[in-house]
Amino acid sequence: MTIPTSTQIDSPDYIPRHLTKNPARGLLIVAITLSTLLISGCSSGQSASPPTPTALSAQLEQNSHPKITEETTALPLPIATPTPASSPTIAPTPSPFLRGPIVIGTSVAGRELEVFQFGSGDSQRMIVAGIHGGYEGNTIRLADELIQVLTAKPDLIPPTVTLYILRSLNPDGEARSESYKGRTNENLVDLNRNWPAYWQSTWPLEGCWTYTYVSGGSHPASEPETRALMNFLLTYRIEALISYHSAVLGIFPGGQPPDPASISLAEAISKVSDYPYPPIETGCQYTGQLIDWASLQGIAAVDIELTNHEDTDLWQNLKVLETFLTWDQAQPNP
Length: 334
Ligand SMILES: [Zn+2]
Known about the structure:
The chain is an alpha/beta fold. Helices cover 29% and strands 13% of the residues. The protein folds into 2 domains: 53-66 and 78-94, no CATH class; 96-326, Zn peptidases (Aminopeptidase), CATH 3.40.630.10. The chain has 9 helices and 7 strands. The protein has a 7-stranded mixed β-sheet, with helices on both faces.
């Protein structure tokens, strides 16, 4: 396999052209996605009725996430009324299907870390985006698109699963810059080098990302973003994890060497996506990574790198999502 040039991987000059949200474009993508989903049906076995076109378009017209501030009570799925009212009407439903945003902590600069919950099954799974901030802002936009799709089409979640989506683990980097300057948190720490797994404050640069100085922190889990997610993963007993990155290198299973459950999950995802697997080797010795710490906790974990720094690869990642939600560690992959 051809090893990409550094320009292909992470050009320091690269600035995504469409990182500024384009509501009309996002609305079109989600509308097309939803119409496809409604036509193709759902394999989850849940019997919820599809939303009416009126209700669906009204949901899409919100073009923002429902802001629900109560964090400890199971909250209902919001249903927007077709009236011109600017704020959505929250109608009670019998199922605690959706909660969010749940604030699990704050960044160094005090920005909130927001998690959305879908479903209420026993198997707890999680998607994390934006660990490398604005530099990988397309992962955050992908998370937002997945949240929109699942809000409008909740029966995509199997009844056995609870899914949590953390849309931006590094909101300070997201706010700072869409270039490589937005990779670290406010302390110039790379949040994917700060976990208590093979941790080093600095590491050999051969084959690694070197566009600007970053550190692994003063000690393992020195950063509030790392500790907030760590506490959440342990408290909620997360069993499987996807951490989204960009770009190019493919699908990385957690663990050094990778553990069998993470390999199984990576293989399952590779069968429904075009992302390289095994991932492209650059010779970098990875330290302090989220997926390696997760592996040590018995969590099946993978990094997925999107195709570039701009696109969300939504179609591909809807298939990844379905696979992630139905993957069963105890069963061999089909
Ligand atoms: Zn990354």
